[in-house]
User: Which sequence fits this backbone?
């Protein structure tokens, strides 16, 4: 474990806490894409298949349980909770999951490290995580004004994988033979998707104005 | 080679 990866994990956790705070305290999911939340639940479900068979560390297991638990409960809140579901912007959150799930699965079948069920699903989860934010970014562009909590949620979510990129560079130079081409490519694509969001996020923060993504 | 067998990251 290095400081970059720890910061990445905590930033990721922070994004989930911000989202849960928004949904749980003000009982609203306005501006949040249910499609993206469902894709994240699928990412964790296919990424952590080995949670009960492979023990890395207490930290690793606890964080996996947190990510699994929070992602599924957020989907539950947005689908089932009597008040939260009313604030779900169904008409604008229309991005089709299978446009992302299918290509990622096909790519995982072709481009993987080992052709086993677990490895293909793990690779699928990497590719899917890279693009899972797209429905959320589309929704942000369609939403008139983006509230602070939603903006901060997306910011932390984008920043976490950026810290992972630094972690991979660090591990490449400190651990010989540390190579994760597939993980690195997916991580670069994932972070690149946030570049324009980061630009508008910092601009709104600098000019102290409402975050607005051009349509 | 990408020995991604040990998956120690989240």
Assistant:
């Amino acid at each position: 474990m290095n400081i970059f990866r720890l910061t990445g994990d905590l930033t990721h956790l922070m994004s989930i806490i911000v989202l849960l705070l928004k949904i749980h305290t003000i009982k609203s999911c306005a501006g949040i894409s249910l499609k993206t939340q469902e894709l994240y639940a699928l990412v964790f479900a296919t990424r952590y298949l080995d949670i009960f068979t492979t023990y890395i560390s207490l930290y690793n297991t606890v964080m996996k349980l947190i990510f699994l638990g929070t992602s599924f409960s957020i989907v539950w809140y947005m689908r089932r909770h009597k008040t939260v579901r009313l604030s779900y912007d169904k008409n604008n959150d229309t991005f089709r999951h299978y446009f992302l799930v299918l290509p990622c699965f096909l790519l995982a079948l072709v481009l993987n490290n080992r052709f086993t069920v677990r490895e293909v699903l793990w690779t699928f989860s990497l590719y899917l995580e890279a693009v899972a934010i797209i429905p959320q970014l589309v929704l942000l562009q369609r939403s008139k004004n983006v509230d602070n909590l939603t903006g901060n949620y997306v910011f932390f979510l984008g920043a976490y994988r950026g810290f992972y990129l630094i972690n991979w560079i660090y591990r490449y130079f400190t651990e010989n033979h540390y190579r994760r081409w597939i993980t690195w490519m997916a991580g670069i694509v994932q972070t690149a998707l946030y570049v324009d969001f980061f630009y508008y996020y910092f601009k709104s923060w600098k000019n102290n104005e409402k975050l607005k993504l051009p349509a | 080679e990408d020995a991604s067998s040990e998956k120690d990251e989240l």
User: Anything to note?
Assistant: The radius of gyration of chain A is 17 Å. Chain A has one domain: 3-207.
